[in-house]
């Protein structure tokens, strides 16, 4: 029997299977796929083309199963980079770097839960009381995080970090006064000279965006392997392998960690390894890779200064479970990391590079850092001289 309930049940089951077999590419493509699936199902059930009324019913079912409700217009606005649903009646956005409330409201907690289910269902994920938290990637590359009761005490919440359609360039950074021409020239030289670079900053400062920009400077004749928790990099490189970690399923099986991917990547003949973010024990493997023939690798981590970044790396190495003395850990870090780039967010919402430091090594077990560029008087000023090439000049 062809009715709304039957079509809805059929579509949900088919979409879950399709996510394991089809490269659906984008949300628009996914919607088209769903419409075609239902039309074919109706033809098979009744032996003929769908009537106008049935086509309208198909559209309603697709809207119910796959629409994003009141936040749909926000997803189409390129000025909006993040959508934050704190509660069914509280929606904030980040527009051009600034957080602002909106007048958008869901009708109820139930409607918000339905939208969350519509988002995660085509991703092959589930969210319910037994598994009340999901962190995943949408088909267009955007990141989605949803938390429901009992973990979310005030009701379901949803965060979508939209995937920028246009990759950032050094020209963009210069136009927004986020970097100086001398600093841009230096960073390009560092990547091309195969220096290991660590990008640090707080949440939402643009670390991954900057990582993508620097990795884009790698020559085409070198093989890059990228490893991410959730794929955000969008490199257009001829010799590229992109790997993405996999969380455990509902039964607690199937986990593939960043660390496992990193260890496997060493067997794939990489020239450069790019890790989206170091958060734990994989830091040791990353440092060892940098020290053993994979020069010019890049990664990011959360830290508020270059020196704090090195201290955080020490903690991450200790999480790897090896009994290494502190002097050995610091030696490993000091020999692996050559350049640290700090990116920050200004009060006006702009994301700017606020420091570039060179790691010169250890002296009496203390990291020797040489600040080459620092944020002074609302601009990135040259404050030091590169130990290898001397004075630096912009293009």
Helix and strand topology:
Layout: H1 4-18, H2 27-46, H3 52-66, H4 72-75, E1 80-87, E2 90-95, E3 98-101, H5 109-120, E4 133-137, E5 143-147, E6 157-161, H6 170-175, H7 181-192, E7 197-201, H8 207-215, E8 224-228, E9 240-244, H9 258-265, E10 272-275, H10 282-291, E11 298-302, H11 306-318, H12 326-336, E12 339-345, E13 351-363, E14 366-376, E15 379-382
Parallel strand pairs: 7-11, 7-12, 8-9, 8-10, 10-11
Antiparallel strand pairs: 1-2, 1-6, 2-3, 4-5, 5-6, 12-13, 13-14, 14-15
Task: Report on this structure.
There is one protein chain. The chain is an alpha/beta fold. It has 3 domains: 4-66; 69-161, Beta-Lactamase (2-Layer Sandwich); 170-382, P-loop containing nucleotide triphosphate hydrolases (Rossmann fold), CATH 3.40.50.300. 34% of the residues lie in helices and 23% in strands. The chain has 12 helices and 15 strands. It has a 9-stranded mixed sheet, with helices on both faces. The chain has a 6-stranded antiparallel sheet with strand order 3-2-1-6-5-4, with helices on one face. Strand 1 (80-87) and strand 2 (90-95) form a beta hairpin. Helix 9 (258-265) packs parallel to helix 10. The chain is elongated and about 80 Å long.
């Amino acid at each position: 029997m062809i009715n709304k309930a039957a079509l809805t049940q059929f579509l949900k089951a088919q979409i879950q299977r399709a996510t394991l077999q089809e490269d659906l590419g984008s949300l628009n493509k996914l919607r088209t796929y769903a419409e075609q699936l239902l039309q074919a199902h109706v033809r098979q059930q009744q032996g003929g083309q769908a009537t106008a009324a049935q086509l309208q019913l198909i559209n309603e079912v697709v809207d119910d199963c796959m629409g994003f409700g009141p936040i749909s217009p926000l997803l189409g606005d390129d000025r909006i980079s993040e959508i934050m649903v704190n509660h069914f009646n509280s929606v904030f956005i980040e527009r051009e770097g600034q957080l602002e409330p909106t007048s958008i409201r869901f009708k109820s907690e139930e409607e918000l839960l339905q939208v969350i289910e519509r988002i995660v269902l085509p991703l092959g994920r589930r969210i319910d009381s037994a598994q009340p938290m999901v962190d995943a990637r949408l088909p267009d590359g955007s990141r989605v995080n949803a938390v429901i009761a009992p973990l979310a005490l005030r009701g379901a919440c949803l965060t979508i970090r939209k995937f920028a359609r246009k990759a950032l360039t050094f020209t963009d950074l210069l136009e927004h006064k986020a970097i100086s021409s001398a600093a841009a020239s230096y960073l390009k030289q560092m990547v091309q000279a195969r220096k290991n670079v660590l990008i640090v900053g707080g949440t939402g400062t643009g670390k991954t965006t900057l990582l993508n920009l620097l990795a884009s400077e790698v020559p085409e004749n070198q093989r890059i392997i990228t490893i991410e928790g959730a794929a955000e990099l969008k490199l257009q490189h001829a010799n590229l392998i992109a790997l993405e970690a996999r969380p455990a399923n509902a039964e607690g099986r199937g986990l593939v960690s960043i660390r496992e991917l990193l260890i496997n990547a060493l067997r794939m003949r990489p020239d450069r390894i790019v890790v989206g973010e170091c958060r734990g024990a994989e830091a040791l493997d990353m440092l060892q890779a940098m020290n053993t023939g994979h020069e010019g690798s890049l990664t990011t981590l959360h830290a508020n200064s270059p020196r704090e970044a090195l201290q955080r790396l020490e903690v991450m190495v200790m999480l790897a479970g090896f009994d290494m003395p502190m002097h050995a850990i610091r030696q490993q870090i000091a020999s692996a990391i050559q350049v640290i780039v700090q990116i920050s967010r200004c009060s006006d919402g702009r994301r700017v590079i606020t420091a570039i430091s060179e790691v010169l090594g250890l002296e009496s077990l203390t990291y020797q850092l040489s600040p080459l560029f620092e944020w002074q008087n609302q601009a990135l000023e040259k404050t030091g001289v590169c130990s290898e090439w001397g004075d630096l000049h912009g293009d």
